[in-house]
């Protein structure tokens, strides 16, 4: 059964009744994007991204205009949508209903896998120069050896901390082992600081803590096989929860963390760090910009530092994530050229300069001036294995159940077994 | 056959007690108590909205540093940015057009359907009522995907009419449910009297029923307008994903321009929303008088 | 069914033996009128509401990620998974708690305020507009505003400290024990204006002469309201209650924006669960939606049968006794 064919039949009936209504009223640009129609050289490329405000929105518009100039006959129809709308509603709907844009954001791990297996994406393996230039960060967008997306930003998740508060509490060097981390937490508590803030109100920031413990406990070999196979029988998944519980027993988090949002306003986990109310936060590379925007003078604070999450297991596994571009299977060939342009060194450098994230192109990454972002990029390069955030890697169906179960551990009502059960139940329903 | 006069008239509502009223009317329910309750209700209702308004006068940095304070200094840039952007005014136009269209459509289609359900007897009448009521019982978000497919197949993507018609459809359940008892409450004697006078059913509908049910019509009109004004999912699927230029997106979609993937310009969001709320409020104020007004007069058989 | 004869159909049955042809023409005319009046609404409604909903219900029988063609038929597995999930059952419990609280608390409150506001007050227009304003404010912003106001250093705590009640200051939305009631408070704030609006519109249908007649008979204000106004307001109250019940079961927007169903599921509702667990699994999401629909329908039918039965009998303001 095909949803589309059934709908077509019924729609035909309804269309008869509404024909007059559909023709009336003003229409503004709702045309089929893929085919120019009149002149054979005319090509329109639709491009959907998630930048809804400047500077990034302006940058993407400039990039589109430049490509149009360099390629006469090509028009790029670019729109920015809110991130969640785009990821959860617009792109899945568009892929299924036939109105898919030509170039759009493709999220790594479970999503790119599902989209590629359903045949919606165009194979980008032919863009060898770009793929070689970007290096290892392209791997999360590979499905069965073929490249279905190319990342434009990718960074490691680590601990952003207030160097002044750490010094005042007697933590002289960033912790490198779990034991040192626990000691640091005790010292900060004694000094009257709140060691960490966590945006458990939004779910996923709390999830990241568990993922990190899981990644450390499981190690590269288990992760490589368990995640694609959705097999959670290894005891390391329980160990992760137990380690989290032990950590929680040290009282490391801000008051009321169960309702703390991640990024909105002064009482968000980022805001608490920005205003000096907490000493650190475990968060992705974008946090420099977010914390900066939440300070009274809207600048990234001098005292902000970064260190990678201490190794809790034997492998040097780093957790990270990013965003990338993909191409629809029916898109014109010019769309491939456009993606190459998007990932060129020049555009990537401008992306880095806009402060919107860590670029994937090594030359652009080398031009980063923020020492924290440099440290983050270095940690990524030095890792044995880079693991995507688990909710991304497992697929969109896992996010809700997994993060909810993890938050129950934070709330004191859940157990490590609950998390594994949530994973197994969701896996069984796939 | 005489019928008790039906007077729906603002002037006859309880007034400040004149001396010729019975004593119970003058002393009981002394005005101060009423005013006290009214003021408390107003303060609680309006408080958070005033918070939004005033937060628009603070810069985002100020809001982040001190979430609960007053503007210090008063920062006008948020409101200026919103009021001078072409996109805001385009959105106001778009929201207004869609709102008026949805309201008219919902009222017209709704009152006709409610009339039949309320005042005709025929098999399947109860089922029809349940059918409309059932429209309220299914969460719209899940139907987003089939709805997208349907709209694309009908060619309604990216047009105003393509947004108005589904919104009317979604406004019908509430409209019909509210109007049916209002229409039922109009006495049969009126209808019989009209029939004796030689008026057709349609004539009765047009000349007697509609004016009498004005409070109900205005109520559902206000609800339909507000629903359309604040709607997010349908405009997202039809306008935004359908390729309409951003200047013509409705107001709720437009608030996204003040957020990035990871942070929001809270001050600007507050300013934008405060301004976006005004036309809907204005519509309510205009309509509210009609809810209280109505046909003054008596019907004598 | 016999109670339904409001004898609306073309007035008195003819005393003389009716010619069958006249009756048939009248019936045909009646059906034509019905069709013309209900037709447009029905077409639009079925196309854009019933059809997508029916299709979504079909999805619920499949294991589906929303991207591939619909292939993996699993029958009622999704339903079993939902109904055995303690988180979903907790959400159902929350929905019914809010439902009962709304009827018991918001109802009388709205009626009382509407009765008070139905009098000629100075500034009545402004008062009514002010009370309705929360309903006008979009859910997204209302949720954001309350999230900021109720945050640890937000407006509410600051206000409490300013009036010396600092002891009550707490992270309102972070405490799983009170979060649901805080949420109910926010919902009351948002939707009471709508209830009052409905009641006011209904009060317009209560003739003033009845009050005067009662006054002449020596009734107090309270007696007047209890014995005359409230019964006449009955249909409106029952309609509001119906909408409130359905609204409580479908509750989504305000909860999603303010708490996402947290903390730790304390404010979870069926629709919030549906969105969280239906990501990338529209089949499961649709199953939740169908369960939500069935619960709403059952409650609605029970309500119709027991509470609204009298409203199905014709007009009630005809012939005041």
Description of the structure:
The complex is a heterotrimer of chains A (430), B (301) and C (321). Chain A is α/β, with parallel strands linked by helices. Chain A contains 18 helices and eleven strands. Chain A has helices spanning 3-23, 56-70, 83-97, 110-117, 128-134, 163-169, 178-190, 204-229, 236-248, 269-274, 287-293, 334-342, 345-353, 362-366, 371-382, 390-394, 396-410, 416-428, and strands at residues 43-49, 74-80, 103-106, 142-143, 146-147, 150-156, 158-162, 280-283, 304-308, 317-327, 385-388. In chain A, strands 1, 2, 3, 6, 10 and 11 form a six-stranded mixed beta sheet that branches. A three-stranded antiparallel beta sheet of chain A has the order 8-7-9. In chain A, helix 8 crosses helix 17, helix 9 crosses helix 18 (416-428) and helix 17 packs antiparallel against helix 18 (416-428). The longest helix of chain A is centred in the middle third of the chain and has 26 residues, at 204-229. Chain A is globular. The two termini of chain A are 18 Å apart. Chain B is mainly α and 301 residues long. Chain B has two domains: 4-79, no CATH class; 84-300, MetI-like fold (Orthogonal Bundle). Chain B has helices at 23-27, 31-55, 60-65, 77-83, 86-119, 125-134, 144-154, 160-184, 188-196, 201-212, 214-229, 233-240, 251-254, 266-292. With 321 residues, chain C is mostly helical. Chain C folds into two domains: 18-59; 86-318, MetI-like (MetI-like fold). Chains in contact: A-B, A-C, B-C. At the A-B interface, helix 1, helix 3, helix 10 and helix 11 of A face helix 3, helix 7, helix 8 and helix 12 of B.
Explain briefly what this protein structure is.
The complex is a heterotrimer of chains A (430), B (301) and C (321). Chain A is α/β, with parallel strands linked by helices.
pLDDT average of chain C, as an integer?
A: 85
User: Helix count of chain C?
Assistant: 12
End-to-end Cα distance of chain C = 25 Å
How many independent structural domains of chain C? 2
Q: Give the largest chain-chain interface (CB within 8 Å).
A: B-C, 118 and 118 residues
* The CATH H-level homologous superfamily of the largest domain in chain A: Periplasmic binding protein-like II
Order of helices and strands of chain A: HEHEHEHHEEEEHHHHHEHEEHHHHEHHH
CATH C-level category of the largest domain in chain A: Alpha Beta
CATH topology of the largest domain in chain A: D-Maltodextrin-Binding Protein, domain 2
CATH architecture of the largest domain in chain C: Orthogonal Bundle
Count of strand segments of chain C: 2
Order of helices and strands of chain C: HEEHHHHHHHHHHH
Tell the overall outline of chain A.
Answer: globular
Provide mean pLDDT of chain A, rounded. Answer: 88
- Spans of at least 5 consecutive residues with low confidence of chain A: 12-39
Structural class of chain A: alpha/beta
Just give the CATH class of the largest domain in chain C: Mainly Alpha
Describe the biggest sheet of chain A? 6 strands, mixed
Strand numbers in spatial order across the main sheet of chain C: 1-2
Low-confidence region ranges of chain C? 1-16, 313-321
